[in-house]
Amino acid sequence: MNEDQFRQTLAKLDDSFLLRKIGQIDGAWIATGRLMTGSGLDDVRHVLNKEPFEYNVTSVEGEIVIRGTGKSDVVFRIPKISKLHMGLFIATVLTTLLAGAIMEGADLLSNPLSIAKGIPFSFTLLLILGCHEFGHYYYAMKHNVDATLPYFIPAPPFLFLIGTFGAFIKIKSPIYKRDALLQIGAAGPIAGFIIAVPALIIGLMLSNVVDVSGGEVGIILGDSILMKILTFMIYPGLPDGKDILLHPVAFAGWIGLLVTMLNLLPIGQLDGGHIAYAVLGKKHDLVAKIAFFALIPLSFLSLNWLVWGILILILMRTTKHPPIHDILSPLSKENKIIGYICLSIFILCFIPVPFQLSQ
After folding, report:
1. Would you tell me how many other CB atoms lie within 10 Å of the CB of residue 164?
2. In this structure, are 63 and 100 located in the same domain?
3. Whole-angstrom distance, CA of residue 264 vs CA of residue 274
4. Which of 28, 36, 278, 350 could form a disulfide with 181 if both were Cys (CB 3.0 to 4.6 A apart)?
């Protein structure tokens, strides 16, 4: 048994047992506290008898002591892949392949096999999104939090350029520990960032420099600090009137950094919201409100921010993060460093104007 499993059991006693202190002695987990008004030892034992570990409940000088022992179950387990998961993934592979092929100018009507041109974009984008979501899943399993495998969401490439609305996992059980909330929230953006950066570098090296002095109409992708650094390193001294036509792998990497940045916004139950709440505690509420209202001036630079703000408002309905039990427990130095790493990634990936049309 580990601390997460012990705390999850204690949470089931909220109606009958008020926790005062928790600790570990000789390999056993010990919780002390008192009974709630109207509850008895039998109520506590009734709940504990249904749990997979061994528990002993005693009363010592008016205080209730719960002792839990037993070996943990295997934590890292892959659940059976449902037909829904598989169907959504296959559909997303197809839509991202179509999107990538269209970017490459493939004539799919006269030559359906030209869809293979979309492989570089599709593979890179799904790898980034998959690693992001499996980062969450891995740490959810590590902390014994019940979570689903990723749901990939396909999108018609003729309406949505990249052929997908992204992916997500569903957390099916509460997160009780501050450290666990931070690590689960941070694992996705960090994993996606680790894959997106090399993809962007490789893609930039495969990209072409083109003349844009003719004023052709097209979509201009915004630059983050990281994008500017990599562009300068790979294409130093790029002259005026020239720009980089991104290779599909580079575009997928750029999308990956954009997704990472958006997820790291410290609002509600976005990844950044989990991280900020774990780091700041109750102060997160003010930070989340400031971040959300900052989308208003940003929308004057790009309407994308207004759209994302409306989506956040519709899907989450609040900027607040749901409370967790031990939010007052101090974070370890290592976990604070994780928080700083995520803040650094957000700054490096931030794009004031993600998309705009060339004049």
Report:
1. 24
2. no
3. 9
4. 278
Return the H-helix or E-strand segment holding 257: helix 248-263
Closest CA to 152 of 81, 103, 202: 81
pLDDT at 128 over 50: yes
Question: Range of 156's domain?
Answer: 83-357
> Amino acid identity of 167?
A
Summarised one tens digit per residue, pLDDT across range 33-48 is: 888 888 888 888 888 8
| Torsion angles phi and psi, residue 200, rounded to 5 | -65, -40
Phi, psi of 187 (to 5 degrees): -60, -40
Q: What tens digit of pLDDT does each residue of 242-298 get?
A: 888 899 999 999 999 999 999 999 998 899 999 999 999 888 999 999 999 999 999
Number of domains in the chain: 2
Strand duo 54-60 + 164-168: pairing: unpaired
Please give the Cα distance from 359 to 343 (Å, whole number). 34
